[in-house]
């Protein structure tokens, strides 16, 4: 039986060879390959190697060599059709019949791949020609070296609409072939054709095997759409492919996570820093097809290391558009969740994307963001909480109804049940702090009563963030009010900082005055609260106390609660304070950069390097200690 070549290629690309071999042979990683003792001859020293990138195995002892089909045939003693049928079942593919039409289609596609490969080379040639000088300078200005430019086969499309057509036509490619892959378009008012990409930096887009199937073109100024992608054609469907997919596929076999970002430059920046699993949608929102493609790259569930998290990480830009894109992706993923198919979400600081963060703060900062990626259960909780008041039974009821509706969209019954159980625990824990009626109205630590619930709990979620500065002020005050023993360690910091929010600044001053007064014994939390509330003789101070000690503060900054260990509160304070210092140092850094640009003296350079060293030290020290609730540290 003959099989269509396109089907066999699809089969090879869907199943990593190492996964098939590892079920039969004990393999260990050896760089980018796997090695083990050859199953086809007796040996004690491993000489059998598997390379997923090149899709072949090779034994240096007996010379055995082949692909996934050949291995299955030889190991399981199967015929070619039998091996193909078994592998197709594992890959979820239906075995087709070879027909003249299918073979003709295969030959057509082969020819189109050749067109795209030649176009890629031509765009590269133009980038390093005199007319590509501006584009080359643009890429260098974005921090790319010539080595990285060549590694990603970046190119340039000249403004001349005919030069590529003439060149490729002269090499034997027809206008129909160029048009079939979206390289040219026909003029509406004239019989001639013109190049689809003009005066743009070119990013070749590869399929799962790394073969160019499309291009993305970026302008170098503000004129026209920032990015222009190839139109869909027989080899390319933008909703079913991601930029960097073939490299991400190889990264999985090296134990690296998949990181889904927004743009071409983000992928390149991450890969250059060693995050080879980076991939990006092609100018569209993340689709169900793209999500499924990412999950199919993962090892089969029964072969995964249970101590590792294999779920892809969504890491979109830290602006409103990026936050909304993350939320849309999560909503799209919800019905598709299973125990083996999920994602995590990492949130970047406001205004940052992976490219800018790496350039500003280095690889360690990006790694820290990825390490803090949230599982879906946390993301769903935060999404539902965003911009909600939780001060009345009706508001809490609306929150509960909304989050349960989200959970109901999970189609996997067993997982949906587990999510419901977890959400119910969180609801019980969160709302057990709501205000209860007492005759005295005094603070009672034993009944875990929320002190005030009349403040406005502006949305504390990272998705719809409260003013970060105001949120930071509220949490710092809550920590000190509930754990006044920390004043001896952090009181000087609290006394020196000035709060932006008037209500909270009034409370800060009142709190510092009470805790720094050494005419009496140190105040415990209960007495401090009594004096703060009793001494709040102005409405502005009472409002500040109400906002600070609301459930809206505690629901995310759990380490600030009065019943949390003081060590958790201490670590929470340190993390928030480091964030504050980082912002001050960043402002000094920007000023130092401007001074050095104006006067490149050794003194200005020394100051610049000293500030950078201080920032790097703070970045290393800003990790939250064990047991600290760090949900909002990126926001506050």
Mean pLDDT: 83
Low-confidence residue ranges: 433-465, 623-635
The total strand number stands at 16
Distance between the termini: 64 Å
Helix/sheet category: alpha+beta
Taken as a percent bin, the fraction of beta residues is 5-15%
Largest sheet: 5 strands, antiparallel
The largest beta-sheet arranges its strands as 1-2-3-4-5
Proportion of residues in helical segments? 40-55%
Number of helices: 26
What overall form do the CA principal axes indicate? globular
Describe what you observe in this structure.
The protein has 636 residues and is an alpha+beta fold. The protein folds into 4 domains: 5-91, DNA Primase, Chain A; 101-236, DNA primase DNAg catalytic core, N-terminal domain; 245-381, Dna Topoisomerase Vi A Subunit, Chain: A, domain 2; 449-621. It is 50% helix and 8% strand. It is built from 26 helices and 16 strands. The strands form 4 sheets. Strands 1-2-3-4-5 form a 5-stranded antiparallel sheet. α3 (68-76) packs across α4 (80-91) and α17 (393-408) packs antiparallel against α18. The relative contact order is 0.05. Residues 433-465 and 623-635 have low confidence and may be disordered.
